[in-house]
Amino acid sequence: MSGVAKILVADDEQECIDFVANTLADTPAELVTAADGQEALDKARAESPQLIILDVQMPKLNGFEVFSELRKDENLKSVPVIMLTGIADKTGIGFSGKDMGQFLGSEPEAYVEKPIEPVILLQTVKKLLPAGQA
Amino acid sequence: MATSADNAQRPAARAAQPAGEYVSDSARAADELRAVLAISRALAGKLELQRVLGVAVGAIAEIIGAEGSSILLIDPETGGMSFHLAAGPGSQKAKQVPLPPGQGICGHVARSGEPLIVNDAQNDPRLYKRVDKATGVTTRNLLCVTLRSPERLWGVLELINKHEGADFDAHDLRLAEAVASQIAMALENAHLHGQILRAERMAAVGQTVSGLAHCVKNILNGIRSGSVVVDKNLAAGEYEKAKAGWQTVRKNNDMLSNLVLDMLSLARETKFHPFPTDVNDLADQICRLVADRAGARGISVTCAAGEGLTDVMTDPTQLYRCLLNIVSNAVEASDDGGRVSVRVHRADGKGRFTISVADNGPGIAPENRAKLFTEFFTTKGSKGTGLGLPVTKKLITAMGGAIKFHSVVGAGTKFVMALPTDGAHTKRKENN
Questions:
Q1: How close A7 comes to chain B (CA, Å)?
Q2: How far is A111 from chain B (nearest CA, A)?
Q3: What's the predicted TM-score (pTM) here?
Q4: Given B285, B286, B317, which is nearest A112 (Cβ)?
Q5: Do B273 and A111 touch (CB under 8 A)?
Q6: How far apart are CA B282 and CA B277, in angstroms?
Q7: Could you give the ipTM of this predicted complex?
Q8: B321: alpha, beta or left, given left = phi > 0 and alpha = psi -120 to 50?
Q9: Which residues pair with B403 in a beta bridge?
Q10: Which of B275, B278, B320 has its CB closest to that of A110?
């Protein structure tokens, strides 16, 4: 494996993927993208990323469902996950990270709130990737 | 036999009592007076209404010597009545039987407004027999008086089955009426208190909405004017001027975003997600971000790191928001050419690290200091939402920390945030 980390970013909003890509543009990481939960799961299995960034509200499979599947996968269960939570998640219309975490038996490594603060996303990515890969 | 209140007295029987029994009658009257006074005091007190009414209903049954007593309240929508409170056998089941409007002896009393004693209830066609059926208690006789306050008829107070087969009499009626008027006043007071609370809440909502609308309007105005500048100068090929317009759009976009987040933070419990955070890096990034804007006014923003704070268990998003709020405030409060210095201090013996933000601006006027953390209070006019500091305080406190400030008019202000390095409190809160 080269020294460049592969990061999977899954979000059904292209603007959000562009925003994440822009934020991570100065890191040497390679980005793989997915537009829904099922595609995220397929790409995770096909591409073996070192870090996965998941939006919570996505078509087909939501972020927590993808996360749950990842944790059951022998090859992917130790890959760190950052969950992007939106306003709906905060207001209780969507999912509660804590409740879902308890329900799933484990929680994602980190949560980053939308609207995404670039500084927070960048620091979180750097903390979760092995040194020198981000 | 139904007897109206006036006819219910039996003066002849009383007059025929031997002189010795008058002594016992006056002793009884004194006991009753004391009991009624005790009920009155309880009803006028500050105890919870339902509890006080329960006490009153039980006590009046005891004083008069009745098997059961109830408060039936009128439903303003249907005009019918239901058992609001009942004491005695079958009282729980009685609550499940509503009285249609005007039905039953109680309904009759509520409609006519006249108190009533019925000493042969089973032969009175007005008796609502479903209650007896539901409770399993046969109503032999009953006494019923209205619960009327100056403003409203609330319902009735009813007593049933006087002990030892005795009849209710005018004396019982007067006692019941005395207590009923007190109960009605307690109901009225509780109702007024509720109305005041609702009015206060509505006023608070109105204040919040108008405060919000004001903020949003200013922000939208900024976005619109910035967009006009961008459009006009892009068309003219004036890119530097267009850039200035774009900065206005961006600044207002950030304000709108912060406003929404601040409103959510105030309205709901924030979910905290502690994560190993490089506090020095966060502080440094914020200073760089703010320095761009500050530089245009000749304000310097410096950042000093603290030792051993690269892996602090805290919520980076919330800490970022709080610190950005405080540093932005410091820059906005500074005069042109001023200085803002941010210092991160390593953990003390209690496992807390601190971040201080100091400016050499004009300071906070003494009369504004107490209001600083109050929602919608702002000294920045249209530039402020008055939510930044209240939200910052709420978040810092919820993360197990504290925020303080010290200000000297003419010399500057220093804010100090102290937070735990292990995020333990935040975690405990989350798991509650």
A1: 19
A2: 7
A3: 0.59
A4: B317
A5: yes
A6: 8
A7: 0.75
A8: alpha
A9: B417
A10: B275
